[in-house]
Inverse folding.
C-alpha cells in the first residue's frame, strides 16, 4: 500500500458538538478517510493525540481554555508527524499567522467545500500545504517583496522554490534536481530567509502572490 493509498486517520477538534458530528459524518463517506475521534478543547486534543496518534487533525482555532493555536503548537512539538489543518471562521492576518507559526500545515475556512476539505486532508497527510484564498491574502498583506528580495534568489534557489510551490517534499525535490536531501534543505533554509518567511507555508504564499515562479 502506497502513501497515496493509505487510509488517513483524522481527529476533529471543535468546541461545538454539531460541528464535530457533522465533520465526523462527512469523513465517513470517504473510503480513504477514517474518523477516529474528537475533542472539544485544546487540552483534550493533546491527550487524544497521544492516545490515538492520528495522521491529520482538523483544528478549530477559537475555543475556550487552551485555544487552537496553543494546542497546535503543543501537538506539533510533541508529535511532529501529526499534520494539523486549521479549520476556522476567522480569516484575519493575526489568526492565519498564528496558526501557521504554531505549525499548522493548512488553513481552511469553515465554509470550505467538501472537495476542498478532502483535498486538504490528503495533501496534509503528504506534507503538502493548502491555504484558503483568504488566508493567502492575509499572509501577504503584511509582507510585500522588494526587488532586492526577488533578485536575491540564485537560479538554483528559484528552481527549488518552484518545486516547493508545486507541493514537492524535500526528498521529491532532491530526486527532481538530482541532488542530496541535505543540499535541498540548505536551499530551502536560504529561500525562507531571503523571503523573510517564517515557514515553508508562508514561502508558498509569498511566491504565489508575487509571481516569483511560473
Amino acid at each position: 500500500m502506497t502513501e497515496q493509498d493509505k487510509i488517513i486517520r483524522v481527529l476533529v477538534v471543535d468546541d461545538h458538538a454539531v460541528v464535530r458530528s457533522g465533520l465526523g459524518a462527512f469523513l465517513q463517506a470517504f473510503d480513504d478517510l477514517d474518523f477516529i475521534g474528537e475533542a472539544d478543547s485544546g487540552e483534550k486534543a493533546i491527550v487524544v493525540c497521544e492516545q490515538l496518534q492520528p495522521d491529520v487533525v482538523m483544528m478549530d482555532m477559537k475555543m475556550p481554555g487552551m485555544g487552537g493555536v496553543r494546542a497546535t503548537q503543543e501537538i506539533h512539538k510533541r508529535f511532529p508527524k501529526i499534520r494539523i489543518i486549521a479549520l476556522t471562521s476567522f480569516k484575519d492576518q493575526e489568526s492565519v499567522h498564528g496558526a501557521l507559526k504554531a505549525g499548522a500545515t493548512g488553513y481552511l475556512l469553515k465554509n470550505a467545500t467538501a472537495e476542498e476539505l478532502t483535498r486538504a486532508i490528503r495533501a496534509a497527510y503528504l506534507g503538502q500545504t493548502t491555504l484558503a484564498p483568504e488566508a493567502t491574502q492575509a499572509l501577504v498583506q503584511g509582507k510585500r517583496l522588494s526587488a532586492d528580495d526577488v533578485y536575491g534568489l540564485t537560479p538554483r534557489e528559484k528552481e527549488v522554490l518552484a518545486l516547493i510551490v508545486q507541493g514537492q517534499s524535500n526528498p521529491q525535490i532532491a530526486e527532481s534536481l538530482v541532488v542530496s536531501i541535505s543540499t535541498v534543505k540548505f536551499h530551502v533554509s536560504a529561500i525562507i530567509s531571503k523571503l523573510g518567511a517564517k515557514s515553508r507555508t508562508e514561502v508558498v504564499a509569498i511566491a504565489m502572490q508575487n509571481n516569483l515562479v511560473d
Observations:
- The chain has a mean pLDDT of 87.
- Residues 8-140 form a domain with the Rossmann fold fold (CATH 3.40.50.2300).
